[in-house]
């Protein structure tokens, strides 16, 4: 092989190595979310319906059996709303995963306080989309 061919071969091998690194990174990327249905999913975080997390479908509670939700924190907000004829404040946490998840909890619950305390300990990561 002449020096030109060696150089071209080395360049091709370096491109292949970079592509393999990208492939491995894509394979090792964690799966986000609980399931893959389209649209957002509102998750209620309290013990009112026999489980810690549940969704409502036609006012009927459906327990979520998965033990973890992974994704990116997109928004935290407190919202005033009416529940059971009373004005209450809810903490709404939007998590971006396989789809948006909106976690709803009373503003003064153990869940809300624990999530806010955990978030306070995080180091911010800036992602540019």
Protein model, in words:
This protein is α+β, with helices and mostly antiparallel strands. It has two domains: 1-30; 41-120, no CATH class. The chain is built from two helices and six strands; from the N terminus they run H-E-E-E-E-E-E-H. The chain has helices at residues 3-27, 110-120, and strands at 41-45, 53-57, 60-63, 72-83, 86-96, 100-106. It has a six-stranded mixed beta sheet with strand order 3-2-1-6-5-4, with no helix packed on it. Strand 2 (53-57) and strand 3 (60-63) form a beta hairpin. The longest helix has 25 residues, at 3-27. The two termini are 45 Å apart. The model has no long low-confidence stretch (mean pLDDT 83).
What is this structure, in a nutshell?
The protein is α+β, with helices and mostly antiparallel strands and 129 residues long.
Biggest sheet record: 6 strands, mixed
Q: What class would the helix/strand composition place it in? A: alpha+beta
Helix content: 25-40%
Which descriptor suits the 3D outline?
elongated
Rg, nearest Å: 23 Å
Strand order of the largest sheet: 3-2-1-6-5-4
How many strands?
Answer: 6
Spans with pLDDT under 50 lasting ≥5 residues? none
* Distance linking N and C termini: 45 Å
Q: What count of helical segments does DSSP give?
A: 2
How many domains make up the coordinates? Answer: 2
Instruction: Return the average pLDDT rounded to an integer.
Output: 83
Beta-strand residue percentage: 25-35%
Give the H and E element order: HEEEEEEH
